[in-house]
Design goal:
With 453 residues, this protein is an alpha/beta fold. It has 14 helices and 15 strands. About 2% of the residues have low confidence.
Length: 453
C-alpha cells in the first residue's frame, strides 16, 4: 500500500491477501499510510528477513532457469509509468516470458513475477512461492494480477463491468520444490471479486480515527501489527487469551454474552448453546487459573503461574496424564529435532538427544545435516544409535514434546527409504512418549500457552 502520484491510495495484490488474513492489519496499513509515525509497526524479525532473502533467491533461481530455456524480457524501468509502458510493449511483441511485469487496474498496481505465453498465445501469470504446497491465499493474489493483466491488455471483461473471467484461462505457482502447479482462473475469480469489493469498501469507509479500526480476528496473522492486536486483546480481556480455546468456541461464547476471560472464569455451570458442558468447564477452569496468575503477578511479576493437577484416570478408569508416564529407566532418552522449512522440500538439520549418566550427569549428543545427503546420514546415525540403545535397555523411552519428532522420523524413513523396520518397531512398541499430551492431560496451568518455550 502506498500513495500514487496524485496522493491517492494505491493498492497491491498483496494488500488483498493481508486484508483476507486480517482486516485489522489492512486497516492499520492504511492508517500508517495516512498518518506516518503516529503508530509504530513491529520490527521485522530475523526469521522474516531470512524468509524474504530465501524467497528472493528462489525467484532468482527460477529466472535463471527460464533464461536458459527461452527469451526473457526483464522490466527494469525506474518509474511505474515507464514500467507499465515497457510491459505493454513486451506483451505486444509476444515475448515468451516477461519478468517483473508492471500491471495496473484502477486503484490496484503491482509487479507480477512472471508472465508466460501459453500454447494459445495468451499470457498467464506465474508467481514464485517458497511453500511446499499451494495455499488458498495465493489464488487471490494471482487473480488480482490476472485481472490487471486483462485490463491492460484491452480485454473487455474489466472490473466492475462484467463478472466473466479475464482473458487468461489459468495462472500458476512455482513452489519452493520447483514444482509448477497450475489452476483455472474460473475456479477462483468470483470469490476474488467478492474479496476485492469488500476490501475497496473498507478503504472507502476509512475515517482516519484509531478508534474505528476493525476488531482483530482471533488466531489471525496480523503481520507487523501483531503487538498492536495483542494489546487490543489485553485491553479488552479478550477470550482469545484463554489457552487452547478455539475460534468456534469464542463465537459461541460471544453469542451467549460471555466476551471476556474474566466472565468466562465465572461461567462454570452455565448453559451455552451448542457448547458441550464438559468443554465449558475446562475453558472456565483455564480462564480462572489465568486470571489468578495475572492477579498474583500484579504484585510479584516473576511469580510462577497457578496450576492444578488433573485426575489421573479417564471415565473408563484408564490412566491418563501424569499417571500415563512409564516407569523411569536409567537409559531414557530426551529427543528434540530442528527443521529448516525454507530449504527445497524442507531439511531436518539437527537431531539432538539428552541422556543421564549416573557419574557425569546430563550428556548431550547431536547429529547435523546441511544438505539432503547429510540429512540421510544423520537420520540413519540417530536411528542406529537409539535402536541399539533400546535393544540393550528394553525399558527405555524416547521423550519428546508434541508430535513433530515422530512425524519427521516417519517422513524421513519414507523419503530416504531407509531404517523403516527400526522406526516401525520403535513405534509399535510405543517407545516414543509425547510429553505435550501428558502435560495437557495431567496439568492445567495459568498461562495462555502450553508451548514448551
Amino acid at each position: 500500500m502506498k500513495k500514487s502520484a496524485a496522493a491517492q491510495p494505491l493498492y497491491s495484490p498483496s494488500d488483498l491477501v493481508r486484508y483476507l488474513s486480517s482486516p485489522f492489519a489492512s486497516w492499520m496499513d492504511r492508517y500508517n499510510l495516512e498518518h506516518p509515525g503516529v503508530v509504530t509497526p513491529d520490527e521485522t524479525s530475523a526469521e522474516e528477513k531470512l524468509i524474504a532473502e530465501t524467497g528472493q533467491a528462489h525467484e532468482a533461481a527460477v529466472l535463471a532457469e527460464l533464461k536458459a530455456a527461452s527469451a526473457v524480457v526483464e522490466i527494469r524501468a525506474r518509474t511505474s509509468a515507464e514500467a507499465q509502458e515497457q510491459t505493454l510493449a513486451a506483451i505486444r511483441s509476444k515475448a515468451p516470458v516477461i519478468y517483473q511485469a508492471a500491471l495496473k487496474s484502477g486503484p490496484f498496481a503491482g509487479y507480477a513475477d512472471f508472465l508466460m505465453l501459453d500454447r494459445a498465445g495468451r499470457y498467464e501469470v506465474w508467481d514464485t512461492k517458497l511453500a511446499r504446497s499451494p495455499k488458498p491465499l495465493y489464488a487471490i493474489q494471482l487473480c488480482c494480477y490476472a485481472d490487471m493483466l486483462a485490463e491492460m491488455n484491452g480485454d473487455r471483461h474489466r472490473p466492475g463491468r462484467s463478472q466473466s473471467p479475464p482473458a487468461s484461462a489459468c495462472f500458476g505457482i512455482i513452489l519452493g520444490t520447483k514444482e509448477r502447479v497450475q489452476f483455472r482462473l474460473e475456479d477462483f475469480i468470483h470469490f476474488y471479486r467478492h474479496v476485492r469489493q469488500e476490501f475497496v469498501q473498507m478503504q472507502d469507509r476509512f475515517t482516519g480515527r484509531l478508534e474505528d479500526c476493525p476488531e482483530p480476528l482471533p488466531r489471525a496473522d496480523h503481520y507487523e501489527w501483531t503487538s498492536h492486536a495483542d494489546a487490543w486483546f489485553a485491553e479488552r480481556d479478550h477470550l482469545v487469551r484463554v489457552a487452547n480455546i478455539t475460534v468456534g468456541q469464542i463465537k459461541k461464547l460471544h453469542k451467549a454474552g460471555v466476551t471476556t476471560m474474566t466472565q468466562l472464569a465465572e461461567a462454570s455451570g452455565r448453559m451455552i448453546p451448542r457448547l458441550n458442558a464438559a468443554s465449558l468447564e475446562k475453558l472456565a477452569a483455564q480462564a480462572r487459573l489465568q486470571c489468578q496468575t495475572i492477579e498474583r503477578r500484579s504484585s510479584a511479576p516473576d511469580a510462577p503461574p497457578c496450576y492444578e493437577i488433573l485426575p489421573h484416570a479417564d471415565q473408563n478408569g484408564q490412566p491418563v496424564g501424569l499417571a500415563s508416564l512409564p516407569p523411569a529407566d536409567p537409559a531414557d532418552v530426551f529427543f528434540d529435532m530442528e527443521g529448516y522449512p525454507l530449504a527445497a522440500g524442507g531439511l531436518e538439520y539437527l537431531f539432538g538427544v539428552c541422556t543421564i549418566n549416573a557419574k557425569t550427569g546430563h550428556e548431550f549428543q547431536d547429529w547435523w545435516a546441511h544438505d539432503r545427503a547429510e540429512e540421510k546420514r544423520a537420520f540413519e546415525s540417530f536411528v542406529d544409535w537409539v535402536f541399539d540403545r533400546w535393544r540393550r535397555h528394553p525399558g527405555l523411552h524416547i521423550y519428546h514434546y508434541a508430535d513433530y519428532e515422530v512425524t519427521a522420523v516417519r517422513r524421513l524413513s519414507t523419503r530416504h527409504d531407509t531404517r523403516q523396520d527400526e522406526v516401525d518397531q520403535l513405534l509399535r512398541h510405543e517407545v516414543f512418549v509425547d510429553l505435550y499430551r501428558i502435560v495437557r492431560q495431567g496439568l492445567r496451568v495459568g498461562e495462555n500457552s502450553y508451548s514448551i518455550k
